[in-house]
Amino acid sequence: MTETMDKSNQANLCRHLAHAAIATPNALAVAVQKGQRGKLTYQEIDFVTLHQRSDEIAYALTAYGLKSGMKAVLMVTPSIDFFALTFALFKAGIVPILVDPGMGVKNLKQCFSESAPDAFIGIPKAHIARLLFGWGKSSIKKLLTVTDANSGAGANVFASLIGGMSLTKLLTRYPIKNAAKTKQQKSFEMVKLSDDAMSAILFTSGSTGTPKGVVYSHKMFEAQITALKDDYAITPGERDLATFPLFSLFGPALGMASIVPEMDASKPIKANPAFIFAAIEKYQCTNLFANPALIEVLGQAGVTDIPADTELDNKTGVKLRSLKRVISAGAPATLSSIARFTQLLNDDVPVLTSYGATESLPLTKIASADLLATSHITNNGGGICVGHPVNGVEISIIAINDNVIETWHDQLALPANTIGEIVVKGDMVSHQYYNRPSATAQAKILAADGACSTSNDVRHRMGDLGYLDDAGVLWMCGRKAHRVETDKKTLFSIPCERIFNTHQSVKRTALVGVKINHKSVPLLCIELTDEAKRNKNFDEATLFSALKVSALAHKQTSAISHFLIHDDFPVDIRHNAKIFREKLAVWAQQELD
Q: Residue limits of the AMP-dependent synthetase/ligase domain (predicted)?
């Protein structure tokens, strides 16, 4: 028994970085693109230097008073310091708290209140917001300010004004020491923890509800790394154009360089495609991670003329010849945007759409060629195909139920081709939310023996609806909260909406429920294409008539006969695809009353 425990207390994500620092010390680990006045510059660091710098920071943090098990908010823009700080926190056993700044001030304050951080590490802007809005004031004891290399003495002055210390001053005050006075590189002995120990708290974006802190264990991170190696065939020496901070951290852990473009990761639709294309070309990136919104932006830009001042040889469209794969996750894929983007790739390069969530990712994957081959099913109300489960993931479908399910038994699983709630199990599946026992109870199902939250048998209820077909392939049918129930049937958002989205004047639609004569009735909100909006001869009645014909032609939509046009759907910032149907439902009801 003792031997088993000793073996299990050897976990730390940074062991992969330590290995890369030995195996390929001088290979590129991280490159960060900076765009100023149309000029692009790059900051670079190799594996051995990143390993050493994170050792230095880990030592300084512990000397500053932060110990293993403490929690630290990390609000630092993607940079070399972001990578070094994150790995330093992991090495020291300090739990990083990662949040999406785009979730809004109110949600951020709630996140910090729930997570009770011991330290706040951030750029000056983050510290100013912390002071203005009182983030974490009841628990934060240590403050650290991170500025760019050119800030000079001003960073120390600012840090002292807010009661903390700059990263530069911290490293100067607490230089790493090596007990053995040799010429060997000074190092920090990383903290070793059990597989199930909390290693990070990642807050959901709140785009589909209140943000919740997902407790990540080292086992979860290891499972994600394994999936990227085995299911996505990522190998050491590759270069990844990483557009999402969390995914970019996996690069060094995989022996792959992370190339970080100049963009706001929380607002990918505002990214400059020319910057991204330039970074891919400069570093001959083999992998690209991008959510569907960015895939749309890059696809649109790549098939049109590129501004003459960009650092690209090809000015009349883009061919991303170095890419071996593209990974897309975060929201349902748009078939048209996937088809457009594949024009930028070599013929044999897939866009791998992955299904998952902050609580569990990746769960399934499907290549673009296979996805596009299912378009006729999707366009006729069959849901979106998200592919086969990755290795080690078990997917079940259970009856739609808003109640807590305490323990699992196989009789809960529905047969093939039956729509229900998606339930998942695997090492990359989180076991709990931080300080949210009711949310944990709602989302988790324990093993039949009532095993504790460290059990491998904890299942997660995704809050998404879908079905498994006869081949075990998963099809998505929308959020459970977005289903519309009437006296006669239940309607599901994605199958219904995709039928109407095929009309040439429709950009996108949203199914909502309204009350008419005290009865629950489905209604379709419609956002027109830009071309339809500009068309002076556009006739609303003609469109509605055509949509009613489509509705009656499909059993999924036969109950829909009410339509409203909305100028601009409210959507989440990050994905520009997750429609706030709750807001549209309120608007639609007001329009009808």
A: 20-434
Tokens of 232: 């996505």
Residue 8 above 70 pLDDT?
no
127 three-state secondary structure: helix
Q: Are residues 447 and 347 both part of a single domain? A: no
pLDDT digits (tens, 9 = 90+) for 457-478: 899 999 999 999 999 999 999 9
Residue 3 has φ and ψ, to the nearest 5°, of: -60, -40
Question: How big is the chain by its Cα radius of gyration, in Å?
Answer: 25
| Domain termination residue (choose one: 462, 482, 502) | 482
pLDDT of residue 12: 93
Domain containing residue 497: CATH number: 3.30.300.30
Distance CA 311, CA 435 (A): 48
Mean of the pLDDT values across residues 447-456? 60
And the tokens for 401? 């139920």
CB atoms within 10 A of CB 62: 20
CA atoms within 13 A on the CB side of 178: 11
Are residues 466 and 323 part of one domain?
Answer: no
Token pair of 116, please?
Answer: 């009770």
CB neighbour list of residue 91: distance below 8 Å, 6 or more residues apart: 12, 14, 54, 55, 58, 188, 190, 191
Q: Which residues have CB under 8 Å from 206's CB, separation 6+?
A: 100, 103, 104, 107
- Number of structural domains (the chain) is 4
Cβ-based burial of 587 (10 A; exposed 0-12, middle 13-18, buried ≥19)? middle
CA 14 to the chain's CA centroid: 21
Claim to verify: residue 271 and residue 322 sit in the same structural domain: yes
Q: What integer is the mean pLDDT of 439-462? A: 80
Please tell me whether residues 333 and 197 are part of one structural domain. Answer: no
- CA dist 347 and 358 (Å) reads 31
- CA–CA separation, 158 and 407 (whole Å): 52
Structure tokens at 567: 């100028």
Spatial separation of the C-alpha atoms in residues 138 and 69, rounded to whole Å: 18
Q: Indicate whether 306 and 339 sit together in one domain.
A: yes
**Is residue 225 within 8 Å of residue 231, measured between CB atoms?**
no
Contact assessment for residue 588 and residue 523, using Cβ atoms and an 8 Å cutoff: yes
Which residues, 6+ apart, have CB-to-CB distance to 130 below 8 Å?
120, 122, 136
pLDDT of residue 36: 80
Q: How far is it, in rounded angstroms, from Cα 211 to Cα 204?
A: 5
Note the pLDDT tens digit of each residue in 271-286.
999 999 999 999 999 9
273 shares a domain with 206:
no
* pLDDT tens string 21-43: 999 999 999 999 998 877 899 99
Query: What CATH number does residue 38 fall under?
Result: 3.40.50.980
For residue 315, the model assigns a pLDDT of 46
Q: Is residue 103 part of a domain?
A: yes
Assess whether 454 and 555 both reside in one domain: no
Burial (CB < 10 A; 0-12, 13-18, 19+), residue 36, is exposed
| pLDDT tens readout for residues 382-401 | 999 999 999 999 999 999 99
